[in-house]
């Protein structure tokens, strides 16, 4: 299993011979200017919520790749109105077995409105169970005690937002890591806008002091999970 980071919360996980693309906000992000979205050929696209900085490239990539979109039921319905029919709608607390592994949709505390003003349902996170591993993609979220529900899942890795302002920041992400009982953290949702720019050295030092393994991959960088 490996992951490639594309900036903000956009990333790809390759597992079970399938490519899973999360929250595709790439082409409008100046930090990701070297990433060609047409070179991405995901088998699945997982969408945590409807905000533009998570779905900006969703329609184009879904149409060009034919990927199945996994998302909350309301976004699934919205995609149908846009001509995207290869969709698997879910809701909070539900899980489903796909050909690469199992996906469970979990709670996130945020908001969710689609770019055209349509309601995006509830925001969500995902836990991916594949290749004998469990990986948590938190989506955009505040620190929430619901994360304690994952502490017995033996999570191998967790993607947590650390940019503050719109989501939890580094201090709350450290608390979240304790809630979910996971030492290996990949930080996301930072630096794309001035209000979520972080001091990387300071954040890394905080995670080290907490006994956590924090990764902040460069855009386009691939790491093994």
Q: What does this molecule look like?
A:
There is one protein chain. By secondary structure, the protein is of the alpha/beta class. The protein has one domain: Metallo-beta-lactamase, Chain A (4-Layer Sandwich), CATH 3.60.15. It is built from five helices and 14 strands. The chain has helices at residues 52-55, 58-65, 73-81, 170-180, 200-209; strands spanning 2-5, 11-15, 18-22, 44-46, 68-72, 87-90, 95-97, 102-107, 124-130, 133-137, 157-161, 184-188, 213-215, 222-224. Strands 6-5-4-3-2-1-14 form a seven-stranded mixed sheet, with helices on one face. It has a seven-stranded mixed sheet with strand order 7-8-9-10-11-12-13, covered by helices on one side. Helix 5 (200-209) links the parallel strand 12 and strand 13. It is globular. Pfam families: Lactamase_B_2. GO terms for molecular function: hydrolase activity. This is UPF0173 metal-dependent hydrolase SAMN05192574_102702.
Topology (SSEs and partners):
Layout (H helix, E strand, L loop, with lengths): L1 E4 L5 E5 L2 E5 L21 E3 L5 H4 L2 H8 L2 E5 H9 L5 E4 L4 E3 L4 E6 L16 E7 L2 E5 L19 E5 L8 H11 L3 E5 L11 H10 L3 E3 L6 E3 L1
Parallel strand pairs: 3-4, 4-5, 5-6, 10-11, 11-12, 12-13
Antiparallel strand pairs: 1-2, 1-14, 2-3, 7-8, 8-9, 9-10
Question: At the first level of CATH, what is the class?
Answer: Alpha Beta
Count of folded domains:
1
CATH superfamily: Ribonuclease Z/Hydroxyacylglutathione hydrolase-like
- Tell me roughly what share of residues is in helical segments: 10-25%
- Major sheet attributes: 7 strands, mixed
Tell me, briefly, the overall form: globular
SSE succession: EEEEHHEHEEEEEEHEHEE
* Multimerization status: single chain
- Can you tell me the CATH architecture? 4-Layer Sandwich
CATH topology: Metallo-beta-lactamase, Chain A
């Amino acid at each position: 299993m490996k992951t490639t980071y594309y900036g903000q919360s956009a990333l790809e996980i390759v597992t079970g011979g399938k490519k899973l693309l999360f929250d595709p906000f790439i082409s409008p992000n100046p930090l990701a200017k070297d990433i060609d979205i047409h070179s991405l050929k995901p088998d699945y696209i997982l969408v945590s919520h409807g905000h533009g900085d998570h779905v900006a490239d969703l329609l184009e990539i879904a149409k060009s790749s034919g990927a199945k979109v996994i998302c909350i039921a309301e976004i699934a319905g919205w995609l149908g109105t846009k001509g995207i029919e290869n969709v698997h709608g879910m809701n909070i607390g539900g899980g489903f077995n796909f050909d690469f592994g199992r996906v469970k949709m979990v709670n996130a505390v945020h908001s969710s409105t689609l770019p055209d003003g349509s309601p995006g349902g509830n925001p969500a996170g995902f836990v991916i169970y594949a290749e004998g591993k469990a990986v948590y993609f938190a989506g955009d979220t505040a620190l929430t005690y619901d994360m304690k529900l994952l502490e017995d899942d033996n999570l191998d890795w967790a993607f947590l937002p650390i940019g503050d302002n719109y989501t939890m920041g580094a201090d709350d992400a450290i608390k979240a890591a304790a809630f979910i009982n996971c030492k290996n953290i990949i930080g996301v949702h930072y630096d794309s806008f001035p209000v979520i720019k972080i001091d990387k050295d300071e954040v890394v030092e905080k995670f080290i002091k907490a006994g956590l393994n924090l990764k902040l991959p460069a855009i386009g960088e691939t790491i093994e999970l």
